[in-house]
Backbone:
């Protein structure tokens, strides 16, 4: 059945949800959690949620922009259809998971603008129940303990073109299985000695159904359960069951899990038949993961970048992590706009990084106050301006938002201007400063260039000019001056020195790692620090605050800044500098 009026931003996930809402597929839901184990809030939310989605990160690294897509999708759908989105930490691997990651994941989801309210869960909270289910599956002859070693298991599994073979342990009697499984739980066997496998079909064309592993022995301390468990359930055994226990309606995941869906359905169906779960069961829907040009979106590889010190930590502004994006000055609004704009599809593709940057420009243009900064300063001396005199000019804080008013910027005899705003040998069409030419000092006077001076190395050090006293912006005489150039400047008497860090792509190639080692594709020039001059009103800027530096782009005060020692990250240029 097709949805009658799919909204214009519809996609196949929304169509599936609308069909389910229309057919009432999820109307009669009951919580699958153990009776009496639900909190008051969970009980209360049972009936109020029309759909239930979840964002299920494994706490083994920091979230990245790919995760942002999944977060916006899951939380966004819940919001749009009157549902609830759970935050579930999929923590079934003691070796790689840490509490530091749990905290940072919570922070990042909140920063993106989403709220899971009381619905925070951990797969490790279900360990007792999962163990109970595993025993029931053994009793129902649907699981067995296998004692092949890892190499043998691989040989027995077959290949994509050849069926697998039954393990000799597949026929182990139930009681022996129960006893061994219980010994595994008591820690009597070393890592790798046995595994618990689901008994499905070793000849299945889908390798995921060839008796997948449900439990492994892993002696290691878990970030929440400590040393309680020497055995841990596999992702496939845990994930779908956790969805069902939490009464998830639509379990949205990335395409690589498409071939796992028959297993997801098989397991929940068997647990339903055994009386542990109730209808309706959750359904898994897959979408294409985000691939972003010039970017790596794999936690394993991001960890390598940090550990091998190719970057300065998880929140290095060049990193695609959400903590890195935040430090760089990317806005949560921009990331949400980006995920909306790229949409949801069923086919893998690469998204151009410039689309993300455009979304940042759009949102930052709206929210950022304006400041004036000279990034590559040379002196400008107004020779007919009194030396001990300072004049106040007025610059709008936001040209599209008159209500934000204007700020004072001082002007005196010596100013800083951009080196590139003066030319000794101007080419045709160059309208800025050259000897004999007139330009406007933005928000100030019209000036005429009268000469210049060089330093010992021969580079231009100082530009000389005269100003026209009746040409001040906003004054009655201003309009009588017609000039083609309009340059920005700061007052050398009051401007402050600051550091600006200019970033380029972290990887020099569009699809890093495509031809082998992704480390070899790192851009060796991805970061450059320059010393700049900024108008004095920027002195009070707070960490994390983002400004538009006129004519340059968006710049955010870095977390390493201190009073009197400001450091700005260039968040994004004003225009796409990659189009050239
Ligand atoms: P990685 O490959 O970086 O290790 P992962 O999928 O193993 O990522 P999880 O913590 O398991 O990391 O991911 C949580 C959720 O985010 C999953 O539902 C996953 O499908 C989704 N996700 C991860 N990477 C992307 C991506 N690039 N685009 C969209 N969704 C993603
Ligand atoms: Mg994963």
Residues:
């Amino acid at each position: 059945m097709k949805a009658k009026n799919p909204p214009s931003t519809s996609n196949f996930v929304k169509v599936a949800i609308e069909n389910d809402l229309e057919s009432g597929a999820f109307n009669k839901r009951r919580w699958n959690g153990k009776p009496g184990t639900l909190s008051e809030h969970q009980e209360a939310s049972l009936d109020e949620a029309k759909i239930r989605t979840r964002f299920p990160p494994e706490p083994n690294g920091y979230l990245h922009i790919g995760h942002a897509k999944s977060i916006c999708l899951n939380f966004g759908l819940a919001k749009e259809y009157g549902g609830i989105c759970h935050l579930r930490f999929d923590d079934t691997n003691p070796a790689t998971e840490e509490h530091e990651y749990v905290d940072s994941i919570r922070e990042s989801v909140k920063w993106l603008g989403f709220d899971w309210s009381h619905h925070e869960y951990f797969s490790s909270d279900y360990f007792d129940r999962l163990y109970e289910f595993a025993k029931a599956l053994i009793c129902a002859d649907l699981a067995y303990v296998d004692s092949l070693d890892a190499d043998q298991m691989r040989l027995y599994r077959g290949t994509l073109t050849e069926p697998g073979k039954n393990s000799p342990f597949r026929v182990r009697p139930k009681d022996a299985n129960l006893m061994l499984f219980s010994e595994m739980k008591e820690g009597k066997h070393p890592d790798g000695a046995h595994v618990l496998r689901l008994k499905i079909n070793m000849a299945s064309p889908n390798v995921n159904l060839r008796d997948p592993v449900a439990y492994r022995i892993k002696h290691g301390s878990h970030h929440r359960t400590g040393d309680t468990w020497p055995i841990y359930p596999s992702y496939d055994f845990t994930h779908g069951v956790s969805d069902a226990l939490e009464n998830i309606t639509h379990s949205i995941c990335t395409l690589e899990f498409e071939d796992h869906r028959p297993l997801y359905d098989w397991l929940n169906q068997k647990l339903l038949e055994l009386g542990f779960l109730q209808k309706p069961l959750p359904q898994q829907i897959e979408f294409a993961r985000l691939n972003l040009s010039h970017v790596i979106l794999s936690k394993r590889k991001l960890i390598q970048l940090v550990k091998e010190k190719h970057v300065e930590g998880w929140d290095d502004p060049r990193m695609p992590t959400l903590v890195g994006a935040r430090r760089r000055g990317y806005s949560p609004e921009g990331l949400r706009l980006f995920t909306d704009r790229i949409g949801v599809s069923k086919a893998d593709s690469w998204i151009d990084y410039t689309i993300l940057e455009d979304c940042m420009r759009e949102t930052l243009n709206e929210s950022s106050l304006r400041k004036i900064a000279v990034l590559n300063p040379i002196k400008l001396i107004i020779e007919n301006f009194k030396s001990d005199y300072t004049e106040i000019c007025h610059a709008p804080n936001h040209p599209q938002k008159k209500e934000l008013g204007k700020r004072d910027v001082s002007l005196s005899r010596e100013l800083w201007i951009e080196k590139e705003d003066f030319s000794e040998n101007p080419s045709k069409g160059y309208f800025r400063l050259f000897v004999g030419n007139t330009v406007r000092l933005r928000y100030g006077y019209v000036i005429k260039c009268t000469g210049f001076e060089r330093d010992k190395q021969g580079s231009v050090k100082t530009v000389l000019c005269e100003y026209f006293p009746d040409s001040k912006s906003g004054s009655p005489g201003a309009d009588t001056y017609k000039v083609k150039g309009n340059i920005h400047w700061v007052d050398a008497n009051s401007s402050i020195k600051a550091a600006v860090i200019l970033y380029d792509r972290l990887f020099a190639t569009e699809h890093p790692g495509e031809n082998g080692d992704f480390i070899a594709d790192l851009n060796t020039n991805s970061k450059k620090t320059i010393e700049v001059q900024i108008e004095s009103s920027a002195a009070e800027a707070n960490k994390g605050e983002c400004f538009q530096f006129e004519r340059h782009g968006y710049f955010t005060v870095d977390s390493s800044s201190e009073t009197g020692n400001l450091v700005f990250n260039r968040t994004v240029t004003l225009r796409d500098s990659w189009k050239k």
User: Anything to note?
Assistant: The mean pLDDT is 93.
